[in-house]
Amino acid sequence: MANQFIKKLGLSKDTLFNLILTISAVLLIILGVGFFLSLFNASLVSLKKFGLSFFAKAEWDPVQEEFGALPFIYGTLLTSFIALAISLPFSIAISIVLGEYFQKGFFAEVLRYLTELIAGVPSVVLGFWGLFFLVPIVREVEMKFEIPPYGVGILTASLILAFMILPYSGSIGKDAMRLVPNELKEAAYALGATRWEMIKKVMLPYARSGITAGIILSLGRALGETMAVTMVIGNYHGIPENIFSPGNTIASVIANEFTEATGEVYLSSLMYLGLTLFIITTVVNLIGRFILKKLQH
Amino acid sequence: MSDIVLKTENLTASYDEHIVVKNVNLSIIRNKITAIMGPSGCGKTTLIRCFNRMHELSPKAKVEGKVLLIENSNEIIDVYSVDPMLVRRKIGMVFQKPNPFPTMSIYENVIAGYILNGIKLKKSEADEIVEESLKKVSLWDEVKDRLRKKGTFLSGGQQQRLCIARALAMKPDIILLDEPTSALDPVATAKIEELIEQLKDTVTIVIVTHNVGQAGRISDYVAFMYLGELVEYGPTDVIFTRPSHEKTEEFLTGKIG
User: Fold this and answer.
1) Could you say which residues from 31 to 70 on chain B have a Cβ atom under 8 Å away from some Cβ of chain A?
2) What's the pLDDT band for A108 if we cut at 50, 70, 90?
3) N or C: where does chain B have the smaller number of CB atoms within 10 Å of the terminal CB?
4) Beta carbons of A225 and B118 less than 8 angstroms apart
């Protein structure tokens, strides 16, 4: 039946297949552009009212209908980059351990399973855990340093984020390390290198672009992560003074406030925030790709 | 007796209980080219990988017997009782497939042994080692203007010569060549063969090959291995004209191989 139908249309199976592929691809582009346009459209009210000053204003006052995104942009970038800095040494360590020392065997399996497990934990569970286990620990530390012991704040959110992104950067880093050709490892050994010298001077430079790719991917994830961060960041609308201060991220503000955004300007400002986050992640990804390209040559 | 640089005593090597080299007693003569030939799977590569302790890098690999590196009459190193890193610096190796480090420049590739071992070289020392090593492999004129470029842009034959330069830069006593021309075209192969002959004044060369012609063209001594055993060993002209074993003759005439 189907074959007869195709014949009637005068198409070969090959062109039909190509047609389906092309349609899917075009549909994807339309969806992407449509998503961006509708988000842009919904932000228009706020965009007209505040313009670019939206990014420079530190005020977020639904009553007076004054909206500025600066504290949230700041909070988003700060938590993500601190998380990245915290997870980086662990991620490289995982890459080395799973990519070279334990490629097979019991220990490798256990470690691989554990990292996959972390990746699979729903972020609300992680946030909940953070609230009841991590927050008291951070509070203890803050009391030791005689800082107001909120417990929740930028640092706590960064710690949770670091934990969440570790499986991503670690697993991509591991794959990058395993892709190092055996001939290169042998060449290093044959010149009298120890295993660590070989890892440091041959494997890591070779796997550098892959490891960087993992880090950038995990940064993209950290920027948009919502639930766990919202639960432990403190939801403070000002610019955080230091890493122990409560703060807020773009994603957290949207998640917290979309239900109560009754005014037109308020809702539109939240959309504008969404647009901002979309742009930030896109820019980060573009920068990441640029770095990758540079590293590969 | 000729000047011996490396000697094996009852050397036996295995992978996972499977014996690949059986009870080999062999003496390599200093500043000569020794070719180890035999059909594939006869254990010739494993044998030379035992000389610089590369064999033990494979999981479940085992070595029994002795390998002695005789630097001079006063200094004899028992290869299996010292640090393997030290052995590998004294016995260099070149592999089947050219494997320059793709993240390093040509310059860095030549002194890679020093970089990897964390040995700091003065700029002038490094320059000198690079120039000298590249000249020895007749690559200097071809690359002197692009030393800072990546070694992977070179042709296969050039890459292999770069790898030989990298081994020479460590000033080893012996260089082991594991079928160094099997991935190269005939022109590049001829160049490498010519180069190997020039090098024997400075370094002892052991070359593994399954190419009878190559063994005949370049070697001074030849060892024939079959099924893990050293069947025959002696001066190349003697073995090629009057082999004393049937198997050697069969291999030389192409009946096995």
Assistant:
1) 52, 54, 57
2) confident
3) N
4) no
Of B112, B115, B110, B116, the C-alpha closest to B139 is B110
State whether A61 and A48 are in the same domain: no
Q: Where does residue B46 rank: exposed (0-12), middle (13-18), buried (19+ CB within 10 A)?
A: buried
Q: State how far the Cα of B139 lies from the Cα of A171, in Å rounded to an integer.
A: 41
A179 close contact with B: CB closer than 8 A: no
Section B223-247 average pLDDT: 93
Please report which confidence band the pLDDT of residue A103 belongs to, taking 50, 70 and 90 as the band edges: confident
Same domain assignment for residues A113 and A16: no
Nearest Cα residue in chain A from B168? A191
Paired tokens of A71: 């504290």
CA atoms within 13 A on the CB side of A263: 12
**B112 at the A interface (CB within 8 A)?**
yes
Between A78 and A8, whose confidence is greater? A78
Q: Are strands B4-15 and B18-29 parallel, antiparallel or unpaired?
A: antiparallel
Report yes or no: A202 at the B interface, CB cutoff 8 Å. Answer: yes
Q: Is the per-residue pLDDT at B13 higher than 90?
A: yes
Q: Which residues of A touch B99 (CB under 8 A)?
A: 181, 183-184, 186-187
Number of structural domains (chain A) is 2
Contact A202 B95 (CB under 8 A): no
- Please indicate whether, in this complex, the C-beta atoms of A208 and B85 are within 8 angstroms of each other: no
Residue A281 has pLDDT above 70, yes or no: yes
- What pLDDT score was predicted for residue B1? 46
CB contact under 8 A, A191 and B170: yes
Q: How many CB atoms lie within 10 A of CB B113?
A: 26
Same domain, yes or no: A67 and A152:
yes
- B112 contacts A191? CB cut-off 8 A: yes
What digits encode the pLDDT tens for the residues B69-97? 998 878 899 999 999 999 999 999 999 99
Does domain B4-99+176-252 fall under CATH 3.40.1260.10? My reply is no
User: Is the ipTM reported for this complex over the cut 0.90?
Assistant: yes
Q: Please give the torsion angle defined by the CA atoms of residues B101, B104, B109 and B115, in that order, rounded to the nearest 10 degrees.
A: -100
